Amino acid sequence: MLSGALLILAPLFLGFAIALDNRRLMTLVHHTVEALVYFILALLGLGLGQMEGLASQLGTMALQVFALVSTLLVCNLAGLWLFHRLRPMTVATSGEAGRPGYRRLFLAGLKPLLAVLAGLLAGRFLLPPVPWAESLATWALMLLLFLIGLQLKNAGLPLRRLLVNRQGLGIALTVVASSLLAGLVLVPVLALPWHDVLALSAGFGWYSLSGIVIGDALGPAWGGVAFLNDVIREIIALALIPLLIGARPAMAIGYGGATAMDFTLPVIRSSGGLACVPVAIASGFLLSFLSPVLMAVLLSLG
Known about the structure:
- By secondary structure, the chain is an all-alpha fold.
- The chain contains 14 helices and no strands.
- α3 (23-49) crosses α5 (102-126), α4 runs antiparallel to α8 and α9 (194-200) runs antiparallel to α14 (276-299).
C-alpha cells in the first residue's frame, strides 16, 4: 500500500518540475487532461457496474455520501466563518461583469456524473468482466497527474507569489484543517480506519482524483462514495457562492475547494469582483496540490 499510494505523487512532481513555453503544446495538454478526466470517471463507473452486490450496497453508499457531504459542509463553513472573523476580507459585489450562465455551469457540473453513469451501465449490461480496468485506471491517473503538474507549473502563477497571498493561503489551510476534523468526526460513522476516512475527506472537490485514488485503495464502492462527495460539493458551491460572497467571501471561495481556481472561478469573479480572483486562484492552486499529497500519504498508512 505504501509504495502504491505514494507512487501516484511521482508524476505530479515530475510534471511540476518541467517548464514549457509552447502554447500549442499546453493547449494539447489541456484537451488531453479533459479527455482523461472523463475516461477515468467512465472506468470508475465500469468498476462500480461490475462490482458484486452493487444493488444491495446502494442504500449504504447513499448514507455514506450524505454523511460525508453534510459533515464536510458544516465543518468547512464553520472553519471558514471563523477565519473570516479573524481575517475579514471586503469585496465589491457591484457586478463588474455579466453574470455567468448558471444553468450552463450546473449542467457542466452534471457531466462527470453522466460519465460515471455511462461506465456503470456499460459494465453492468454490455461488457464482460474487465480485470485490467483497475490497472488501466491507475496508469491513466498517473498520466493525468503528470499533465496536471505541467498545468500548475505553466499557469503563470509563481508558487512563491501564491504562498504570500495570505488570504488564499489561510483559506486553503482552513479548508484542510476543517476537512480533516470532519474526517475524525466521521471515523465511527463510516467504520473505516481513521487514516482512510481522512483520505476520503481530503478530495477538496477534485472528484476525478479522489474517486479513482480511493477506489484503487479501498474498492469501487468507496471510490464511488468519494466521487459523489466531491462532485456534489462542486454543485453546492455553485449555489452557495453568490449567496455568501458579499458578506463572507472566505466561506464562498473556500467551500469551492480545489475548483476555486477553475470551475467555480467564473462565479467567484462575477459575484465577488476582481479582488476575489487572486485569492481564489491561490486557494484553489494550493488545495489542488495538497489533495493528492494528503490522500497518498494517508492511504499509505494502512
